[in-house]
Amino acid sequence: MAEYKTEPLKCWQKAKELRLKYYKDYQEARSKGGIRWTGGAWAFDAIPAGLGRDVYNVTGEPYAASLAFDKKLSMECLEAAEAKGWARDLCSYMRNYWGSMYLGKYAFGGEYPEPDFCFQDHICCSHGKWYQHVAEYKKVPYFCIDVSVGPYEDVDENRLMFVVNQMHESIEWLQKITGRKYQDELLIEAVENETRSTSTWAEICCLNMAKPAPLDEKSMYSLYVHGTLAKHSREVADFYEELRDEVKYRVENRIAAVPDEKCRLMSDTQPPWGFLKVFRYLEKFGAISIGSLYTFGLIGIWETKPDGSWGPRTTPMQKGETISSRDHALRILADWNLSKPEWQHFYDPNLKTEMMLQIVKQWQLDGVMLHLNRGCEGLTCGIMENRLGIAEAGVPIMTFEGNMGDEREFDEKRVIARIDSFMETLGMEMLEPSANTASP
Amino acid sequence: MFARFFDWYENRHDYARKWLEKNGGEVVGCFCSYAPEELIYAAGLLPVRMLGSHEPQDVTEPHIFGMFCPFCRDVLAQGLKGRCDYMKGVMLAQSCLHLRQSFTSWKNHVPADYAFYLYMPNKVQTDHARPYFKGELEKFKQSLEQWTGRTITNESLQGTAELYNENRRLMHEVYDLRKGPNPPVTGLEAMVMVASSFFVDKKEHNAELERILPELKSRRLDRETGGRLMIVGSENDDTEFVKMVESVGSSVVVDDHCTGSRYFWNLTQFTGDIMQDIANRYLDRPPCPTKDWEERRRFPHILNLAKEFSVDGVILIQQKFCDPHECDMVPLKEFLNSNGYPTLFLEFDVTVPVGQMRVRVEAFLEMLGVEELF
Description:
The complex is a heterodimer. Chain A is α/β, with parallel strands linked by helices. In chain A, strand 11 (367-373), helix 15 and strand 12 form a beta-alpha-beta unit. Chain A contains 16 helices and twelve strands. By secondary structure, chain B is of the alpha/beta class. In chain B, helix 7 (154-176) runs parallel beside helix 9. Chain B is globular, with a radius of gyration of 20 Å. Chains A and B meet through helix 5, strand 5, helix 6 and helix 15 of A and helix 5, helix 6 and helix 14 of B.
């Protein structure tokens, strides 16, 4: 008999529809006279939103994750990139994306939709180069904002203004290449939506402190993704509020993601998208991954509360602040993003270790699984120092090698064997099959 | 003629220890060639570029994941093995994620009194980078002053910038001699000349350059020039490799490496605002691929070098797993080939398989039609 009741998320179908609508809107934008652009999931998507309500984007990382989930298509894309001569150890999202572009195949059916321009930001070595190549290959204009001005705790006026000034420059550039007049009110609206969506996502993650956890990480991947697609959009901000209310209901009614929850873990970095079943394997031991710095902080925006705990960052609207001008909006947007948890470790792995240990403590975890992800140099930057720091703090930790977007670098049997050993270390045994099924 | 440079290069740690005995002050290890060494030198310190030792090692395994470049791990290994125990300060000029990890792990595990992370912009092409980087240099200056207890005056910065410019001018003069049909300098000598300048007080380095230059102009090497090659790519101070290349009927006449021409190519232009002038010099440098976007400014520079030095072919080398160079390699190869320059791509590790690479270099030279082979 399972310990807790479980049931699928009511808004699961809506999450799927919203995601498909996003990719379809991009595909159909041009036929409706709209604009489409491509760039990274961390690009300041609120900025092109000022060009009009008919501006749609495809962000490269989640798009490539969708490709990676389709193993056959992914292999075609990876081989197309390799045939051009690109190294196999480059970012696997980038290689999947480029392959899709070379083949002219869109992961959601039909031809790869040509972007009108590329708009990116840069914190990882691959960021600036990724869309430099796309822009050259597709012969479209390209703008990239450098955000590598140091960890948030050290951000001062000089560093903030370097980002803000580039944002202003990007707006001039957008007007020039599109011939459209920029609408500050749309920018302000997008910034309000972005702060609302990314803070609300952090609020949802906080609800996972509950025992039993209302969400498991495998399901969270399908939910956090909206923030990587269009964090600036009203639809995403509204959806996250709806999701938050449902997750609250699950907490109040002790509706579990994993009905036999006995052991709480966190992972790190992007998962191997073609092998998400490893998360279901954990459940056979009553183990649940409640999230990670990756799922919490890739798009979620957080702050340290007066009592020292970690919680959703207070939005300008919650503070009663009215965004009054373009410059004001851009300052908020820059400051907001520079506090992104997943940007901090680019400067010092100790900052990430501290955040991970905070999650271990606050979410009451029993162990940590680090994915040594060969597909992403950005999120694995400093990861071995994180391993040392977490182990030194006395937290059980395991590592497994893989690749988020290249299945050739994932040894499923070996990873399962390592999980078995880790479970044994934690004193967990394989459970009898439960009558309940896990969410969603 | 280049014996002193070879001695400095091979005995860099001895040199640094002797410098400390003689001058006092401290030695500051600089991660990446974007480090604004002028500020360090003006504080009475000796800036020293961090390089590896080209020896297999495993001490970095617990610290840097194996998918990062062998160079960054080799650099960290020097600290973990205690080879730089005389070095009391380290600083990083922000560039790639790889070398950044050598610095952050060094900070965690190698004793040092001083560590500074300079947030050098990656987008060097925007005008906004100029005031921003000047502001970051001011912070670095203040930090050095606080550590050393010495004030860095504008006059001392100006003097140091001129000293560094002189070093750059002198190395340019040596490089210029390689443009002719019979270069009086081998690629190996040029590589060691530049690499030794990372470790040596620029006053001494300048004096040695001034000593050899007059003699060098009339020097006749007892060897055929053979195929005129350019080497382009990641960090490279692999002397064994260049020695091999030049032993099979060719000469390396120019390079685009951060350990070579990129380090000294452009001069500081003085406008009366010395901190801004130093900032501009680093922003305007021939770029590392990690800072070469949105526009490609690196490729035209490389093409100019190929033309100026009458290059027959280009060896593209890349440290294994070096993402920034991997991102440039495919378009760079196409670019050079389309401009009539044949290329040979070779991947480097901490040690290189010289025998295998010899076969490939020989085949490349044969393809270039270098008769000296036979």
